[in-house]
Amino acid sequence: MNLTREAQKCLSRRRLGLAILTLLLASLVISAAAQGAAFQLDPSQTSVKFTLGDVLHTVQGTFQLKHGSVELDPDSGKISGEIVVDAKSGESGSAMRDRKMHNEILESERYPEISFRPDRIEGAVAPRGESSIRVHGMFNIHGVDREITVPAQLEMSAGRWTATVHFTVPYAKWGMKNPSTLFLHVNDSVEIDLLAAGNVVRPPIANSAQ
Questions:
Q1: Which of 83, 85, 181, 195 is least enclosed, having the fewest CB within 10 Å?
Q2: pLDDT band at residue 38 using 50, 70 and 90 as cut-offs
Q3: Do residues 133 and 121 touch, judged by C-beta distance below 8 A?
């Protein structure tokens, strides 16, 4: 009878030890996830498109991403980092129109970069699958910072992420020249569509325990 009780006590101790170990491992995983992640943009898989309407037809073009990386703290909703686009890379398929865009509107020789520095998000980011969020930050174009909030659709998978963002840039209101002429009128705002993709870099669990 005593041997049976001792065996039961040993078994209980082992079960308690396993339960404690499981809780510790789970807390480490949760702690690592809570520390957030870095979202690195891959220029080869990221596209920046613009659309400008006029009375005759719609002008579409592209810009090239230079670099980008942002870090997210899911607990506070704070986000930091920068996405930088090469303003001088803008093209619409017409050499004459592009010269006018770069020389008279963007002045891309003087302001060679367009950037976005996010600082916070609204909404929760799911560890896997799709999330709808809003991203607030400072958008710099033509050498001036503008405060904006843009909607974003984010999709997460194992080590990878993609995001689609659409927003409007009221370039004329922001002090840039409207290229309209007496016979050709264009919109005073341009639509921007960003499709971004890249890797997710999470902190190692070992670092989270320190």
A1: 181
A2: confident
A3: yes
